[in-house]
């Protein structure tokens, strides 16, 4: 199946959200806090901005260009001269900043100039909508940012620009089949043999290729996927027993053992903390 089908599975299951909070001329230095699950997208149409982070040299981003942080990272943006035209949004990729979509990206993604050409149609739509004041503007902008994220992910996958992580796996036709199946049916009793068969490889070859591409074993990836789904369902108020079943565990006790080992608390305690 195509890598874009895998993206559809990810977007359907983890329901990302976006909120455009500024569109216009960047006139002053702006600071953004880190540590939270929300990422930040800064899209530059004209002019340029300086991007500063702790422990990194300042980076110039001139339009057309973008900066994307999939998770909350403390950073500062400042205009380079006048007429810096930007659009800024928060992006929640689901999973509390630790979901598969969030981990798909590097910690920071910067694209400028010719790299932006494949994104030009939706780039133009974003700024055209931002320039107007018609009814539904905010809803349209938020939806367009999500569309922009799909096009961005698709471009990164099709051009194999990321060498490790989920994007790298989705760029590999055989591994993409497995990743898509895992996301479609995380509740299935998956075995290494079943995954290798789906990829059309021996178990040894599949294990080596998956770890080299994704950066973790297929078993660890599946566990992370299941627990990401579990956290999502727990946060929505689903009972532990039904969450355990949806996440592929034989019973609540087995689920609780794995959950506690990874998070340091029980599913019920985690759910109470998430809701209150």
**Distance, first to last CA:** 41 Å
Overall geometry: globular
Q: How would a crystallographer describe the biggest sheet?
A: 5 strands, antiparallel
Structural class: alpha+beta
Fourth CATH level, the homologous superfamily of the largest domain:
Jelly Rolls
The oligomeric status of these chains comes to: single chain
CATH class of the largest domain: Mainly Beta
List the helices and strands and how they pair.
Layout: H1 3-14, E1 17-25, E2 30-32, E3 39-46, E4 48-53, E5 59-62, E6 65-69, E7 75-79, E8 85-92, H2 100-104, E9 109-112, H3 120-131, H4 137-158, H5 166-170, H6 173-184, H7 192-199, H8 203-214, H9 218-235, H10 240-246, H11 252-263, H12 267-275
Antiparallel strand pairs: 1-8, 2-7, 3-6, 3-8, 4-5, 4-7, 6-9
Helix pairs in contact: 1-6, 3-4, 6-7, 7-8, 9-10, 10-11
Question: Any key phrases for this structure?
Answer:
276 residues; alpha+beta; Jelly Rolls; Arc Repressor Mutant, subunit A; 2 domains; five-stranded antiparallel β-sheet; four-stranded antiparallel β-sheet; 12 helices; globular
Give a verbal description of the structure.
There is one protein chain. By secondary structure, the protein is α+β, with helices and mostly antiparallel strands. It folds into 2 domains: 3-158, Jelly Rolls (Sandwich), CATH 2.60.120; 172-275, Homeodomain-like (Arc Repressor Mutant, subunit A, Orthogonal Bundle). It has 12 helices and 9 strands. The strands form 2 sheets. Strands 1-8-3-6-9 form a 5-stranded antiparallel β-sheet, with helices on one face. A 4-stranded antiparallel β-sheet has the order 2-7-4-5, with no helix packed on it. α3 (120-131) packs antiparallel against α4 (137-158) and α9 (218-235) packs antiparallel against α10. The longest helix has 22 residues, at 137-158. The radius of gyration is 20 Å and the shape is globular. The N and C termini lie far apart (41 Å). The mean pLDDT is 89.
């Amino acid at each position: 199946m195509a890598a874009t089908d895998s993206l559809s599975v990810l977007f359907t299951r983890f329901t990302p959200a976006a909120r455009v909070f500024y569109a216009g001329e960047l006139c002053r230095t702006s600071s953004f806090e880190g540590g939270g699950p929300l990422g930040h997208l800064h899209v530059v149409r004209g002019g340029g901005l300086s991007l500063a982070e702790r422990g990194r040299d300042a980076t110039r981003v001139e339009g057309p260009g973008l900066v994307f942080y999939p998770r909350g990272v403390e950073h500062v943006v400042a205009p380079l001269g006048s007429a810096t035209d930007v659009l800024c949004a928060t992006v929640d990729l689901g999973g509390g900043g630790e979901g598969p979509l969030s981990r798909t990206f590097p910690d920071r993604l910067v694209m400028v100039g010719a790299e932006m050409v494949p994104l030009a149609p939706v780039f133009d739509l974003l700024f055209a909508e931002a320039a107007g004041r018609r009814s539904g503007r905010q809803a349209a902008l938020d939806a367009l940012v999500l569309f922009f994220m799909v096009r961005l992910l698709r471009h990164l996958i099709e051009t194999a620009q990321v060498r490790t992580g989920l994007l790298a796996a989705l760029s590999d036709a055989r591994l993409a089949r497995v990743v898509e199946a895992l996301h479609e049916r995380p509740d299935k009793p998956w075995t290494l043999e079943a995954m290798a068969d789906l990829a059309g490889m021996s178990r040894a070859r599949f294990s080596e290729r998956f770890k080299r591409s994704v950066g973790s074993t297929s078993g660890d990836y599946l566990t992370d996927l299941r627990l990401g789904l579990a956290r999502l369902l727990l946060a929505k108020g689903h009972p532990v027993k039904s969450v355990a079943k949806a996440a592929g565990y034989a019973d609540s006790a087995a689920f609780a053992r794995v959950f506690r080992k990874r998070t340091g608390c029980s599913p019920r305690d985690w759910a109470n903390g998430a809701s209150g």
